Amino acid sequence: MYQPGHGRFAVDDPATQLEALVMTVPGTLVTLGPDGLTASILPLLFDRGLADGPQGTLRGHLARGNPQWRAFSAEVEPLILVDGPDAYISPGWYETKRRTGKDVPSWNYVTVHARGTLTLHHDAAWLEDLVRRLTVRHEAGRAHPWSVDDAPRAYVDTQLRAIVGVELRLTRLEAKRKLSQNRIPEDAAGVVEGLDAGTAEERAVAAEMVREASRG
C-alpha cells in the first residue's frame, strides 16, 4: 500500500480498522492463477483470538462454481481489500483554492489491505458455523431477523454443499485513512461542509473526517 512520506494517512492499529469495516462491508479477495488475477467480493468475519495468530484471520466463503478457489498460486500471497466510505473532493471546497487557485481535485477514502496464507474448507460443520455467524451479525437489529433455522434443514444442507470456505491467516495488514489530514484546517472544514450536502456516501466520508480530526 502506498503511503506518502508525511505519514498522515497511516493507521497505527489496522486490525481495529479492519474489525470495524467488516461489520458492515464485504471484502474483495484477489488471487493470482494461471489466467492472471481473479477477484471476488465476499462477506467476511475477522477473528483475533489466540488461535488466529498475531495478525488475526479473515474467514468467508465462495460459490463452489466460482473457479477462483480451484486455481490460485500458493507461491503468491492472496490480497483482500476492505474499503470503507470514499468520495470525490472538489478543489472548490478549499479555502486555499480561493486564495491562490493552485489546487486540484482529490479523493478521500478509508481502506485496509490484508495479505496472508489461504486455506480452503469443505467441511459442512465449518461452513455452517461461518454462515450462522455471518447471518447473526447482519440480521442483528432487524425487526424480524432471519435465521438459518428458518429454512428447511435439507435446503440448508444443499446450500452448504454449494459453497467453499476460505480462510486467510494474516501475515501483513496495512490500513489507510486519507481524510484531508494534509490540508489546512480551513480546507478540511470546507470539505466537510461540501460533503455534508451530498449523498449518503459523501456524508459518511464527512463523518470519518470529523472522527479523524477529533483524534487530534
Summarize the structure.
By secondary structure, the protein is of the alpha+beta class. It contains 6 helices and 7 strands, in the order H-E-E-E-E-E-H-E-H-H-E-H-H. The chain starts with 13 loop residues before the first helix and ends with a helix.
Structural class comes to: alpha+beta
Distance between the termini: 24 Å
Total helices: the number is 6
Mean pLDDT: 95
Strand order across the largest sheet: 2-1-5-6-7-4-3
* CATH C-level class of the domain at 14-86 and 105-181: Mainly Beta
Uncertain runs are: none
Query: What string gives the helices and strands in order?
Result: HEEEEEHEHHEHH
Largest sheet: 7 strands, antiparallel
Q: Residue share in helices?
A: 25-40%
Structure, explained:
The protein is elongated, with a radius of gyration of 20 Å. The chain has a domain at 14-86 and 105-181: Electron Transport, Fmn-binding Protein, Chain A (Pnp Oxidase, Chain A, Roll), CATH 2.30.110.10. The model has no long low-confidence stretch (mean pLDDT 95). It is of the alpha+beta class and 216 residues long. Strands 2-1-5-6-7-4-3 form a seven-stranded antiparallel sheet. The protein contains six helices and seven strands.
